[in-house]
Automatic annotation (TrEMBL):
Protein family: Belongs to the NnrE/AIBP family.
Organism: Hymenobacter aranciens
Residues involved in K(+) binding: N60, D124, S160
Gene: nnrD
Residues engaged in binding (6S)-NADPHX: 59-63, 128-134, 157, 272, 335, 386, 451
Protein name: Bifunctional NAD(P)H-hydrate repair enzyme
Amino acid sequence: MKILSAAQTRDLDQATMQEQGITSVELMERAAQALSAWFYEQYGYGEIPEILLLCGPGNNGGDGLALARLLQEANFRVRVALLPADKHSTDWQHNRQRLPRAVPVAVLDPANLLPITKGTVVVDALFGTGLSRPLTGAAAAVVQWLNEAHAPVLAIDLPSGLFADQPQPADSPVVRATHTVTFGLPKLAMLLPQNAAFVGEWTVEDIGLSTAFIEQADTPWHLTRLPQETTIITNPPRLLYDVSLPRRDKFAYKNTFGHALLLAGSQGKMGAAVLAAGACLRGGVGLLTVAVPGGGYDILQTTRPEAMCLPDKHADYITELPDLAPYQAVGIGPGLGQDAASLAVLRQLLRTAKVPLVLDADALNLLGSHRTLLKLLPPDTVLTPHVGEFARLTEKARDDYHRLELLRTFAREHRCIVVLKGAYTAVADRDGQLYFNTTGNPGMASGGSGDVLTGLLLALRADQRLAPLPAVRLAVLAHGHAADLAVQTTGEAGLVAGDLVAHIGPALRDLTA
Ligand SMILES: NC(=O)C1=CN([C@@H]2O[C@H](COP(=O)(O)OP(=O)(O)OC[C@H]3O[C@@H](n4cnc5c(N)ncnc54)[C@H](OP(=O)(O)O)[C@@H]3O)[C@@H](O)[C@H]2O)[C@@H](O)CC1
Ligand SMILES: [K+]
């Protein structure tokens, strides 16, 4: 799925109207219907709250006015408060006229804003994708007043004051919504940690926007999602896959799934090697060999009998690179430590490897402290930094938007695939495209999650049937999905990395086309 800019979103609305022969008012009505359906789902069967709709001067306010009418017709108690403005959009005026007289309408007086009654649900229909500058004056005063009320807030399309695709100044006010309902496609702003407190939970409502326009739209931003049912109804339901694991041929041989080498573990960190090895095995690798420090031999052989083990001559950390000839992919980093001997192993690996590489954890820290090594990265090497590790590889980002630019530049410059781990893990490829992952949960914020991802990436990079980018997107999607499956029994707090390993099998089964 694509993510479009604010300008492209406006063009998308126009294209939809032309393609479907509908007016902008009709499109607005679809948006309002989707919003009223949301209210039904939330409140239709329980206690019905009073709803206060704050409406701005443009089409976002027009959405609010149309929603007020639909909610009033559905017997919700509604009130409308308008932001004072000199001009209003045509569709706003249309929906203002259609608003039933029974709905109380007031114009907000920014100098005299009355307290919001407890229990009121507020709809933020002040500004959406048409925000052209940071909020000041009356609009800023209203947003501040709303935020101080701590009421539940549903934002239409975007929380007011937030730009869809670029940062706003730190001191400019933005509505802190409890929930945001957006139309057609998510907006870039919704995926960034710095905006989480404004956006709240978010959902995307389908209002029948032009798929032809979306397909041809040029954008670097994409989403990777679980398989979705097509809109064409079939029995059994047909699924559309963003990425998928090919079904195994009946006569499949283990060579198809590759022989992977994992270099991992040091004294006190053998758990990282065990977790990554487990994930690689559950990820479907044909054969796995794990190179570990001598002292880790018994641990690995006992916990993962399916893997072969190469013990290093040093007891505590890895000092020698094994002969790479037998392997189709190599992973390095989990629990590796940062000893000078391990650095030499990494350097030699980068110089000599002719197969896909996955670099994580201490391998990234070593790269960060010896950046000249970056020149040695073979094309399509996979790097899996979290935000701190990424900063060590490049520079400290000013904000989340800047970080995305650094990420795309880095991936292009080094012709590699970077997996920036976080709530919406971002996969950047050498062409400058960026894919946000949509699976996973906060239970994954605990030790070992990253080691599991490395093992899974290694398995899918060793799989001879998958191209580099789809393999990486699939691994990231499956990793999050495994966590979402596991959390159903463990809960978020109780989720440990071993649970992820145990759920990789079912996660990949769901992603097999
Ligand atoms: N198009 C469609 O068919 C559909 C659109 N949809 C809905 O429309 C929304 C987009 O509507 P929109 O383009 O009218 O923009 P909107 O966000 O209402 O704001 C524009 C107004 O605000 C003003 N303004 C801007 N910044 C300001 C500031 N800082 N401080 C003060 N004023 C400021 C700006 O004035 P100006 O910049 O011209 O001075 C203008 O008057 C979209 O988010 C979705 O909700 C859905 O119904 C689906 C169908
Ligand atoms: K809004």
